[in-house]
Amino acid sequence: MQFIQQLINGLTIGAFYSLVALGYTMVYGVLKLINFAHGDLFMWGAYLGLTGLNVLLALLPQAGAWAILPVVIIVMITVALAGVLVERVAYRPLRTAGRLAPVISALGVAFILESLARNVYGASWKTYPTGITPTGRIALGGSARVSVMQIVVLVVSFLIMGALYLFVQRTRTGTAMRAVSLNHDISRLMGIDVDRIIASVFVIGPGLGGVAGMIVALYYGSFDFTLGWTFGLKAFIAAIMGGIGNIPGAMLGGMLLGIIETLGAGYISPQWKDVIAYVILIIILIFRPTGLLGERVAEKL
Amino acid sequence: MEKLLMRLRQMNPLWWQIGLIALAILLPLPLGNYYRSVLWRTGLYVMLGLSLNIVVGYAGLFQLGHAAFYALGAYTAALLNLYLDVPLLLTLPASIIVAALCGYLITRPILHLRGDYLCIVTIAFGEVVRLVLVNNLFGITGGANGLSGIDRPVLFGLDWRQPIYHYYLMLVFLGVTIFIVQRLEHSRLGRAWMYVREDEVAAEAMGVDTTRVKLLAFVLGSGWAGLAGALYAGKITVISPDMSKFMESVIMFCIVVLGGAGSIPGVLVGTLGMITLPELFRPLKDWRDAWLGFAMVTMMILRPEGLWPSRRVQLEMHGVQEESLPTPTKED
């Protein structure tokens, strides 16, 4: 029974990783750039959510759990706008500048966002308002229980991921995104506005990241400014594990990483859970050099 | 700025080399101990930057876990010194060997990975090393607090509590490093590294053993970082697992790329930008990182090839320039 309990906890954490990993993987798909700033955009989602909830609950104390809904939407829009701005200012001028320069630029943006958060909100742990998230638990037989919050998190994440998958597979914009991730020049010849598609990727990725930041903060209740680096790094590892640039891969990698981590913490030692996760990542990459679902890309010839 | 750099480039390299050496020797003399320590720190990171430059700059491999080898070198020196009473300066070779050996063992199985996958694995290794040190493997690494009470170097009966002697020691090692790295750059191996960086498939087709060449870059770079770690342990006398944290690796990576990947003067310029200037701007305190980030973004947009790029990289980015090539006799 302990196993099922760990599995449920792992899936919940995995869902967070997946949501953030999607942002990394979509940006990588179209730009072939590791967007190191993504983790910090995600963290800003958590901070903005905190401010939004505090303001709304101060104005409308009876709003309760319903306050979450408008705040999520505002956070999503704000972080998405920030993402587009980052792309416009820091990445677009470097699109033809080789592979090293954009990485440094991304790290620079990450520095700015983290420092900004630390200065605006302070370095101490921040706590979300209590009493607005569901608290009940449902017994699953034996000693395993799943909390209502976990069910909400899982349902919301799967809905978002499902919608994203359909969007990318079925819509015109989604098709254009897949085309751009294959080849910019030929996409342009086919009449695709590459800049617009890249901008729309920077709306969706950071938008999702912002929502994920708020859900994570609601789930754990408190966080500090290191959330961006720690969680971002994990999510990035999840994206690589599944095969970066591949959307189902990011979902699978996130879930897998969450489960490996909780099982490692539960059965081996909580101190070593990160080491276990990293070692498994390395083993996966030794045997599948492009991740679990990554396609074998032919080297240029 | 552009013009000044151009002028500096066209000067006889011997002159600015002599000038730089004289400056490096004389600079700490009028300064107080704090600024001497800042200079020493600059030297330390120049050495780390030069070691990472072999991997990132010459061979073009994404290494974002370089700090792990720096930490391994420091821990090797500290453990030998604390448990076996080996004098610190005699632990240096051991630090190099341990770091280089770890570099070999760690990178051997992952060399076939492509750019970004390699990058994430090096990040993962850096974190594994840090966590292993924090979790106190074998009970000898002192856990999260690290190790303290490491002996300072003993040489010529000098008072090694003074930062200035550490600075000159660092300078000697830096001189040796720069000499070796410069020779490497123009050697057969150095040319093979750059070939792999520019086009791995073509390099392989021309008979370059790419696996061996890339492995050598990692081993040499790691070993050198280990030496820097041991020198750090000898001055600070307290080391902690934080030496291997991701941020350290990021700083080293930025030093190499900001200055201009593959360029030795670039590493020096990059260190001034990433280490020395922020150190002098300590009063900015909380906003320092934001300014650093802002500078990194602006710098890359204005000069994506780095501040002082090697000529090869510059030509690659901007095509043939109006700048006349120096007379061939100065080129090696």
Verbal overview:
The complex is a heterodimer of chains A (301) and B (332). In chain A, the strands form two sheets. Chain A has a two-stranded antiparallel ribbon with strand order 1-4. Chain A has a two-stranded antiparallel ribbon with strand order 2-3. Chain A is globular. Chain A has 301 residues and is mainly alpha-helical. Chain A has helices spanning 2-31, 38-59, 68-91, 100-121, 148-170, 172-182, 184-189, 194-220, 227-242, 247-267, 273-287, and strands spanning 126-127, 137-139, 145-147, 222-223. The mean pLDDT of chain A is 86. A two-stranded antiparallel sheet of chain B has the order 1-2. In chain B, α3 crosses α11 (246-259), α4 crosses α10 and α11 crosses α12 (264-280). The relative contact order of chain B is 0.17. At the A-B interface, α4, α9 and α11 of A face α6, α11 and α13 of B.
Keywords, please?
heterodimer, A: 301 residues, mainly alpha, two-stranded antiparallel ribbon, 11 helices, 4 strands, 3% strand, globular, B: 332 residues, 2 strands
Q: How big is the Rg of chain B?
A: 20 Å
Radius of gyration of chain A: 19 Å
Number of strands of chain A: 4
Class from helix and strand fractions of chain A: mainly alpha
